[in-house]
Amino acid sequence: MNRDTRTIFELSRPGRMATAQVPKVPKAPKAPAAVEMADIPVNLRRPSRPGLPEVSELQVVRHYTNLSRKNFSIENQFYPLGSCTMKYNPRGTHHAAAQPGFPGRHPLAPAAHSQGFLECLFDLQEILKDVTGMTGVSLTPMAGAQGEFAGVAMIRAYHEARGDAARSEILIPNAAHGTNPATAVMCGYGVREVPLTPDGDVDLDALKASVGPQTAGLMMTNPSTCGVFDRRIEGIAATVHDAGGLLYYDGANLNAILGKVKPGDMGFDVLHMNLHKTFATPHGGGGPGSGPVGVNDKLAPYLPVPMVGRDDAGGFRWLTQQDVPGSIGRLSAFMGNAGILLRAFAYALMLGREGMHRVGEFATLNANYMAARLAEHGFALAYPQRRASHEFVITFAEQAKTLGVSAMDIAKRLLDYGFHSPTTYFPLLVPECFLIEPTETETKEELDAFIEALVAILREAESDPELVLSAPQSLPVKRLDDVKAARELDLAYRPPGE
Amino acid sequence: MPFIPHTAAEVDAMLDAIGAESIEQLFDEIPSQLRAGELRTVPEARSEMAMLRLMGERARKDQLQLCFLGAGCYDHHIPSAVWDITQRGEFLTAYTPYQAEASQGTLQVIYEYQSMMTALTALDVSNASVYDGASGLAEAVLMAVRANRKNKSRRVLMAETVHPLYRQTVATIVRNQGIALDSLPMTASGVVDPAALNGHAEPPVALVVQQPNFFGLLEQVDELTDWAAAHDVLVIAVVNPTSLAILKPPGQWGEGGADIACGDGQPLGIPMASGGPSFGFICCRQAFVRQLPGRIIGRTEDLDGRTGFTLTLQAREQHIRRAKATSNICTNQGLLVTAGTIYLSLLGPAGLEGVAGQCHRRTAQLASAAVTLPGVTERFAGPFFHERVLALPCEAEPVAEKLAARGILAGLPLGDYFPELSRCLLVCGTEKHSDEDIERYVTELGAALSSTEAVA
B382: distance to nearest CA of chain A, Å? Predict the structure, then answer.
């Protein structure tokens, strides 16, 4: 195991460099203000060189290759992180986005020389409208949270355009992702939480008591973060609509129903999709994501720009604020995470119509299979009376009490077994929980192996609890001191003595 | 079935374990009237080969040979090792490093990235990146409003010379939080005038300055920063990271330095690729670290006292603080940051200076060659870096279209952004350009201009 934790800075030696990468070595390396810079006034020049590492090309390649080997990833391990949809990211999609013409396309190139790119985006807009049951799509949001921002900003623009500006509150079920309330606040709204019933649905009576003339809208995920489909969604939609509010669909869990149910048919007015989940684009260690938004006719006038439309000659063109005067505006300098959009489109082309239906089916099959097998082994499902959607919640509340091992301990021990842990301690309302999402791309053998590992870990917790409590043992580091990290902030390397 | 591994026998065995008769039955909690019908627009499935053929055909339509267009996205050489390593599955297909022990690779890369960005900007701390430069500026503006304890104004003064697409993005994102954006107008020289600041009765909460500005011109950042410091105004610097090899870093502007620096990391090893994904960076003074949005990585120790890296200061973030978080942001651009970190390691201080110097030299060469053409002048005189505004004797847009038809991106026609500059092209040279490339540009520009005049 590689336990070298030196940073690239500690490999640095003054005067060393990856010479092949330097376009032209300055003649006097000690003098940053070389002769040809004479036209830049001295007071605007950098007085000394930045403290970047001075290393050889091989050192760089070896250092970062070795660092990569300290990561778990989908391509190395089963990664059943609930609500994150860690499915296989087809390698072909990266090649699609790398076809000559795409990587070198400047974002401000004239439309006449961008027809290939624009056509891909246009087609993707149409596909996403179809799978969501919406009438308008804008691809520009760069992540789910930015899609949420766009969606709630559109809700606000809608109410303001109708002179209905007193609506001040967004309703959010208390199992929601943290991004939902944070987004509502960024859009200038207050947040009111709505409780769930014991079986995981939104408490319709509580919702009815919460709506009113102050209600701008409701943000909700369905299936919810509890891994169940809210059966009374039509009643929820009617309640919010009757109060004059709009319905926002958080597409984090769209994989569960892809090709089976369209959010537009459930009564949602606006949604975002996480292409890095449902459309298999890579998560990249935390990003890039991509969060296109879809709307029905009520909100179409407010969609963020740019979008792609047809021109009179049958070609494709950018739609800007001039075409969509009510637009909430622009969310990035150019066209969001364009390369991710190309990958999602390539994925959709390979799935095709039938493949799209099967995503939801097999994601649901895998989750229900795991839930059933784990229940057989005595694990406690949080919602045993319900069908699992594409994910499900188990709770270790009992084990925490009787064996003294927490969900976090079990999660860490799973790493020793070569599995990435499921999402832990979320949803917040289930104690000591795992949210498990296997996705459709995993084999039955892999699911079985994971279940066996969990069974083995519980046995260890009975016979040798220290093994579980001190896990992981086999990774590059043991458990980290988060308190020290926050108290003695060390956020950037400084050379010794500085 | 694309990407679904199940055999028919396995499906049966799994349904048995569940106690269901069919996959269909697993959807029995969904009201039947909500069940989707056929998908109409989604095409039939294609093999990878057929998909790549279609994508390849479309991509080829967009190929151009020479790019002299910058305006926030730059055509630099990317060392081969950058993406060979970045595309390793361990980086490409990991998620946010919630399980630190299983994510030390990503975590250490981001720590090194934060270190490099603070070195470049000469500020104390960096976050783990945000989506892009424009949305990063919006986050920086929101951060400044929270961080400025001495000045509770909600008016932000933004130089008119900040990239217009950045200004539009900021307007969208801060609009609903009661923050007003005022414009500090540019002078005839294409920069803002520090003396004009004294006309502001009530000091704004923050001043946004881009260096080099949208036109490639250098602002008087020392004077602007000193005025701000004297009036309890925070300075937000928007900078091109490549330029920081040569230009004074924001942390050293004026007497006390800028407070926040942000910008787009695309020049650091990210292909132009239609503008995204790239990454936005935000650096700031130590005192403001708790107001920084987004992920932050810290170095710490494990139980055995060994060095390790972990997400820290999470109490700022949406998954903990929910409605009270500093931002709703949930991702960083981890993959692009990995590429940027490898790029900066390969270039090092001398290499980055070499790239920046070559960019500047090629831009100067391009501009001085272009003004030998009849009727072509440099629109603004003052000192510049990496970009230049050419004034043509006619409208710029048709000229740019003519050059595009000859395989050359001639620069950005400015009329859409500044109507009074509709005869101007913003051009950009990089280290990729050779003497021959520049000669070809000038020859083609000359031909386009004479044919345009002939028509006129």
Answer: 9
Is A485 close to B312, i.e. CB distance below 8 A?
Answer: yes
- Residue where a domain terminates, one of B342, B373, B406: B342
Q: Which residues contact A341 (CB under 8 A, 6 or more apart)?
A: A120, A121, A124, A139, A275, A290, A292, A335
CATH number at residue B281: 3.40.640.10
Across the interface, do A143 and B361 touch by the CB < 8 Å criterion? no
Output A297 or B327, whichever has higher pLDDT.
A297
Res A31: pLDDT: 37
Please say whether the beta carbons of A139 and A341 come within 8 A: yes
**Total residue length of chain A:** 498
CATH of A92-349 among 3.40.50.150, 3.40.50.300, 2.60.120.620, 3.40.640.10: 3.40.640.10
Q: Is the pLDDT of residue A30 over 60?
A: no
Query: Residue A2: its pLDDT value, please?
Result: 72
Q: Do B111 and A493 touch (CB under 8 A)?
A: yes
User: CA of B164: which chain A residue's CA is closest?
Assistant: A333
Domain co-membership, B143 together with B275: yes
Q: Are B92 and B154 contained in the same domain?
A: yes
Of residues B18, B52, B329, nearest to A92 (C-beta):
B52
Domain annotation covers residue B197: yes
Residues in chain A with CB shorter than 8 Å from the CB of B102 are 71-72, 415, 420-421, 472, 475
- Answer whether A79 sits within 8 Å of B95, measured CB to CB: yes
Q: Is B24 a domain residue? A: no
Q: Let me know whether B424 and B331 are in one domain.
A: no
Test B115 with A117 for CB contact under 8 angstroms. no
Same domain (yes/no): B289, B404 = no
Q: Mark which of B303, B324, B342 sits at the end of a domain.
A: B342
Per-residue model confidence (pLDDT) at position A448: 98
Report the chain A residue with the minimal C-alpha distance to residue B221: A44
Nearest by CB to B274, from A115, A339, A493: name it. A339
Select the residue from A21, A35, A410 to test the B interface by mutation, using most B Cβ atoms within 10 A.
A21
- From residue B381, alpha-carbon distances to B164, B189, B218, B391 in Å are 21, 7, 11, 12
Taking the domain A356-483, which CATH number applies? 3.90.1150.10
- Please tell me whether residues B338 and B221 are part of one structural domain: yes
Q: What pLDDT score was predicted for residue B118?
A: 98
pLDDT at residue number B199: 74
DSSP-based three-state secondary structure for B269:
coil
Contact criterion met (CB < 8 Å) for B101 and A415:
yes
Cα–Cα distance, B417 to B245 (Å, whole number): 29
Site of tokens 């900007």: B121
Structural domain containing residue B110: 80-342
Closest CA to A353 of B50, B4, B47, B39: B39
Domain ranges within chain A, ordered by starting residue? 8-68, 92-349, 356-483
Q: Model confidence over A242-262: pLDDT tens digits?
A: 999 999 999 999 999 998 999
Kindly state whether residue B141 falls inside one of the protein's structural domains: yes
Q: Closest residue of A to B271, CA-based?
A: A103
Same-domain check for residues B319 and B195: yes
| B393 shares its domain with B317 | no
Lookup: tokens for A279? 């459309």
Q: Do B85 and A92 touch (CB under 8 A)?
A: no
| Number of independent structural domains in chain B | 2
Mean pLDDT of all residues in A306-311: 96
- Give every residue of chain B whose pLDDT is below 50, as ranges: none
The CA distance from A314 to the nearest CA of chain B, in Å, is: 15
Contact status, residue A438 vs residue A370, Cβ threshold 8 Å: yes
The verdict on residue B362 lying in a domain is yes
Are both B134 and B222 inside the same structural domain?
Answer: yes
Angstrom distance (rounded) from CA A329 to CA A369: 45
For residue A361, the chain B residue with the least C-alpha distance is B23
Phi-psi region of A421 (alpha: psi -120 to 50; beta: other; left: phi over 0): beta
